[in-house]
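Fold sample X.
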Amino acid sequence: MRQNQCDSPGARGDPTVRREPAARRPPPAARRPPPAARRRRCHLKPAWKAAYTGSMWLEALLTAALAAAVYWFLSRDKEESLPLGDGWWGPGTKPPGREDELVRPFTVETSEEEINDLHQRLDRARLTPPLEDSRFHYGFNSSYLRKVLSYWRNGFDWRKQVEILNRYPHFKTKIEGLDIHFIHVKPPQLPAGRSPKPLLMVHGWPGSFYEFYKIIPLLTDPKNHGLSDEHVFEVICPSIPGYGFSEASSKKGFNTVAAARIFYKLMLRLGFQEFYIQGGDWGSLICTNMAQIAPSHVKGLHLNMAFITRNANVLVLLLGRRLRSLLGFTARDEELMFPFKEKVLYYTLRESGYMHLQATKPDSVGCALNDSPAGLAAYILEKFSTWTKEEFQDLEDGGLERKYSLDDLLTNIMIYWTTGTITSSQRFYKENLGQGINVQKHEWMKVYVPTGFAAFPCELLHMPEPWVRAKYPRLVSYSYMPRGGHFAAFEEPELLARDLHSFVAKLERQ
């Protein structure tokens, strides 16, 4: 028998309900309301419940809406900039008075003593034989290294390379206590009525300003190198402090923001109020920080690598192949990122050991590399192998001479060797990563300067357009490059130059 919804459990003999003794209970007629009243109560109570439930839902919705509004207000993107700040990175305390702002010419030099010392160390190199069929799977193959060292000792002409380095004008100037080195290359000729566009290009590790020597003519003299002269550039390539001919910081804490501030001051010192900037590796982060510090002075930002951790999470990567269209990934993105384990997880683990070492104890390995040219060559050239193309690890020579000449590779190494800057260059990892990831303000800030991005297929980690746009909302161009890896300007100067020209053309038309 169906129970009346208005009846209490006790009325049906529910043993869990305590019943009063019969003597104390009123007569049944007194206890039960009239049938009409019972009907009214049965109909009114559900209506009251519905009104009460409706008000609860309304209150919940209003609370949720208020919470969402507060969250949006607190977390919405703001076009904020990093404070300019100031610093002193030279030895001791900052001296009183104004810093010397003189820009001085500089010439790369060498000596017989320097070359003799190098040759003696190369003659004493002690190598461990490689495992059979190990190729580059265990790092730099020592059998091929022996060939490289032999050429370095007997065939490489450092004096000739010094002349090549001096083909472009070099300068130094003091900024925040450090002697900052840079090359400044102006166009040999300009179309009538045109003025060059100032462009700052910043290298990374284990590269140097020399990475840009082949791309500079394509930017400063494009017409004579098969490119459009719609836009002609005036190129400035500094050495990051602690790299090559730029003085290293004497104090802890010198990171990409400090380098960005110094390079921004450099551009102002050279008389540029508006300029373009371009970078890869650490250069991409330094240029990003410059855009965050002085967005009104940076006309455009062009990158061939991006440090983005805010949107690139493992769950997205794991689901990306199944939810490609929903996440905005293209078929090319899928090709470059999946299968996830092989192309992202395993590859990152295999190639990032150096980063952990340099972000924790850079001075330990630095002692060995600064003392041994053979060790320095193996440590640096191994990156120019696998970071150029992953499949090069399957070759006995690491594929190095398929993309570069030994003269170019050894010139880059000599910049580290002759200046003794391998340790200070590695400390840059400690200063930027030693405190953790996503702990600095600039890592969470978006960049509202117009941006162009060149996605080279063999870069260490591919960044799809939605991820890049999330960090750089004013993304003017995003290009899938047909070939090339981490050292884009060094390996594929024409491809990078064309994309840079295209980006500036789009931006200038806007």
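Fold sample Y, listed below.
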Amino acid sequence: MAQLKAISPTSSINLASCGPKRNTLSNPDNFICSRKFSSLQELSGKSSSLHGHAIVSNNGPISLTHKNRGIRAVLSSDTGAEASKATKGGGLRGKLNKVVLAYSGGLDTSVIVPWLRENYGCEVVCFTADVGQGIKELDGLEEKAKASGACQLVVKDLKEEFVRDYIFPCLRAGAVYERKYLLGTSMARPVIAKAMVDVAREVGADAVSHGCTGKGNDQVRFELTFFALNPELNVVAPWREWDITGREDAIEYAKKHNVPVPVTKKSIYSRDRNLWHLSHEGDILEDPANEPKKDMYMMSVDPEDAPNQPEYVEIGIDSGIPVSLDGNTLSPASLLAELNEIGGRHGIGRIDLVENRLVGMKSRGVYETPGGTILFNAVRELETLTLDRETIQVKDSLALKYAELVYAGRWFDPLRESMDAFMEKITETTTGSVTLKLYKGSVSVTGRTSPYSLYREDISSFESGDIYDQADAAGFIRLYGLPMRVRAMLKKGI
């Protein structure tokens, strides 16, 4: 799968002095900067009038795109002449004009850049999404893209959109795949793929590409989103086409095409991280009989090493959506990030799962979802006050299908959208607060309150009341049990 890296909000970047420039990327609203900002926040503030929500740096000129959620960086490169030659003719497999590639800067995506140019004679626009992976430094991402032969780099901060428009709807629906999985990777792919479709439109690309393998779920999630949002885009999946079969082949290809091989140490695990979760696959986990190693976990401490004193948190919820922590209203991404920190230090949210992949095989993965586990418990507990029995049963049955659709990459399917409309309507009164106790890997509810609570103490009390007469139960039981009584009478010949 494509491993997409984030940009640190504290990274220092070099740009040139700000002033207008015509025809930059054929957009009259672009401008060039050339001074150094101390942080990405400062640059973000300077660019707020342009409605840009993403930051990208480059040693060459960059352009800030008006009225879209990204800042595009033009990567000047010594390979520019080669790129021009490549785009004049065709490639080994055909001809495309411009391809937007989901890009991480790792070995696989670095190799895909020259492979696309060689095989499709196209320009390559690299795209990186920040969905809360936690990578703290830009770490020369633009230089890597330039060295690989890309003509442009686009970076977009999608964290708030990811949590608000993808995570929280799944949370409200109660979507859990195969009893355990809270859909961390499944929810992230459509928001990334949607941004790629947007970027393709902005830069005039006729194709998109990803680094997902032919065995996984992510290839389906990316491509179904592409199909749903722009069926005219061509899709290139190198892992299903090229002769590269592993890391060594990729290194050899990189050397042959003068692509710097990333020197970062390769993890023995395959990991995917975003603001919702961190997944671990591979190595000893491929044998379901093996216990995960203690040092594998990154978001949470071992429950045995967690504090000996519990911690209480109060989650405020409005119409099925979390809005506050301990009385403080926070943005969706900020709320989740804070709960990840709290839950992580108490060892919350670890699961070990053997799941059925969409493509048919089983796979074993270990997931860390500290903040998500806290929120899931909070929303579910509040529903015990605000939803009646029949509604909960229907909602739970639909949640299974909802989770299946999300897992299968059908986020933009009309069925999921229709089910989401039901979930939004049915949780209109799921408003209130839930207090939870966190202790050594466990989450337990200690209190819940709602102005729309269906719980009435005057009815539920064992004391007699005017609304519920206990004597009425006798007639109810006789009628409710009539079918069972008739069946028994038949067997006895009565």
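Sample Y note: The chain is about 35% helix and 20% strand.
Also: The radius of gyration is 27 Å.
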